């Protein structure tokens, strides 16, 4: 038992060591993990406080309307995150995931799990991942800047930020496309 503890301890120490080669990947992974955990907590909090809600999904929204709305939210969030050094990401996560928890929790009390998730899972998966990336970009950039300028570690701040921004943009476009052209067919088939 003592040898297994020592091996486990060495493995954990090795994993937690930040070497110069993969500092961007580790920082992004830790930031993304922390943001995801906070998002899940806000979702569960909203889910437990939900009440029965009538469902009135709007299937007549255009692709451009959804894309513009989601893009405006993402850009405003990034701007406010930069102004608050990443603290606004908590407000953004609370707003998005608490509301989502209340909505899904309320609908599940009135409709079946399959009916409720039929609309959300198709476009919701890329949209939720996009929201988490949106909330992660600025805190991740600040941590990388700290590593580079204060701790004097070699890392590529802007490359990582641009890649995350590009992934976020692709997910917003994909979610808008799925919400407009694919999701309505699945919901209509269930009713």
Structure notes:
It contains six helices and no strands. With 191 residues, the chain is mainly α. The chain starts with a helix and ends with a helix.
Topology:
Elements: H1 2-16, H2 23-48, H3 63-83, H4 88-108, H5 113-150, H6 157-190
Listing every helix as H and every strand as E from the N terminus to the C terminus, the arrangement reads: HHHHHH
* Biggest beta sheet attributes: none
Approximately how much beta-strand content do the residues carry? Answer: under 5%
Q: Mean pLDDT score, rounded?
A: 83
Low-confidence stretches: none
Q: Termini distance?
A: 58 Å
Estimated helix fraction: over 70%
Structural class: mainly alpha
Shape: globular
Number of discrete helical segments: 6
Radius of gyration of CA atoms, rounded to a whole number: 20 Å
Which structural traits does this protein have?
191 residues; mainly alpha; single chain
Give a nutshell description of this structure.
This protein is mostly helical. It has helices spanning 2-16, 23-48, 63-83, 88-108, 113-150, 157-190. The model has no long low-confidence stretch (mean pLDDT 83).
């Amino acid at each position: 038992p003592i040898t297994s503890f020592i091996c486990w301890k060495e493995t954990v120490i090795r994993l937690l060591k930040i070497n110069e080669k993969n500092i961007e990947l580790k920082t992004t992974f830790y930031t993304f993990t922390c943001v995801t955990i906070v998002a899940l907590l806000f979702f569960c909090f909203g889910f437990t406080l939900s009440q029965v809600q009538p469902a009135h999904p709007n299937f007549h929204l255009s692709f451009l309307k959804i894309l513009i709305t989601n893009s405006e939210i993402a850009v405003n969030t990034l701007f406010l995150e930069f102004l608050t050094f990443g603290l606004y990401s908590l407000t953004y996560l609370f707003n998005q995931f608490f509301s989502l928890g209340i909505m899904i929790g309320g609908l599940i009390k009135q409709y079946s799990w399959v009916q409720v998730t039929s609309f959300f899972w198709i476009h919701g998966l890329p949209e939720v991942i996009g929201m988490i990336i949106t909330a992660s970009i600025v805190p991740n950039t600040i941590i990388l800047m700290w590593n580079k300028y204060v701790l004097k570690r070699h890392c590529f701040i802007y490359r990582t930020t641009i890649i995350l921004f590009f992934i976020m943009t692709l997910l917003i476009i994909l979610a808008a496309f799925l919400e407009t052209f694919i999701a309505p067919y699945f919901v209509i088939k269930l009713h």
